Amino acid sequence: MRNACLVLTILGLASGAPTASVTAEAPPVADDVIGQIDAGKSYYAEGDLSRALTELEFALNTVRAEFSRQFMATLPEPPVLWSADEPALESSAALFGTGLMVTRRYEEEKGQGRITAELMVDSPMVQAFSAVFSIPVMIANDPSMERIRVGESNAILKWDADRRAGDLSLALGGRVLVKLSAQDVDDKTVLIDLMTSWDLDAVRKVAGIR
Q1: Helix or strand (DSSP H, E) at 180
Q2: Alpha helix (H) ranges present in 47-123?
Q3: Is 110 helix (H, G, I), strand (E, B) or coil?
Q4: What's the Rg (C-alpha) of the chain?
Q5: What predicted TM-score, i.e. pTM, was given to this entire model?
Q6: What is the per-residue pLDDT for 125?
């Protein structure tokens, strides 16, 4: 449904509405996207719906790729004495219709600690996590869970000191879930510090959350 609405919005540009605001701060892929949209509009005007749809799908995919890249750019840098892989897009999320998901993996340089950062957009996991916040007694009744303040947002930390493992999760605007999962980590503050270093303002901006 979202794709259909976006295609109709793109075709609506053919009505002659001003487009200066679209290109004022255009990303590097803007020229490709605009060219694909223009081609799609031309085919649509000619009644060639098949080619119009193909061009508009190309435009949508290009925008999705840039959307993912901007989210990946927000993932935090590794803490001191830790290293990290390059951020990655989990294509299986889109394949199964569960939104967008980007990840980054961190490893302790002089230990066995591992942390995985996940950012999910428009995933059912966001609604499931938000439901936990709506029932505070669930947190109060679980001694392994606590609410943590991260900037202007509330996060939930679930930590098992015996297993040296846990996760820290935070929802933004009902659309985005950011999560850090740790294994073989001695101190939970590593998770808290890493979440604090995440550029959540940039996440909100990319996601269109006010």
Answers
A1: strand 176-183
A2: 49-72, 91-95
A3: coil
A4: 21
A5: 0.78
A6: 81
Mean pLDDT across the chain: 83
CA within 13 Å, CB half, 208: 4
User: Which of 160 and 17 is assigned the larger pLDDT?
Assistant: 160
Dihedral sign, Cα of residue 24, residue 28, residue 34, residue 40? negative
DSSP state of 188: T
In tens, the pLDDT along 95-143 reads: 445 578 999 999 999 999 999 999 999 888 888 887 777 777 888 888 8
Backbone phi and psi for residue 12, each to the nearest 5 degrees, phi listed first: -65, -20
DSSP structure class, residue 205: H
Tokens standing for residue 4: 């259909």
Write down how long the chain is. Answer: 210
Q: In degrees rounded to 5, what are phi and psi of residue 145?
A: -110, 145
Selection from 15, 10, 16 nearest residue 36 by Cα: 10
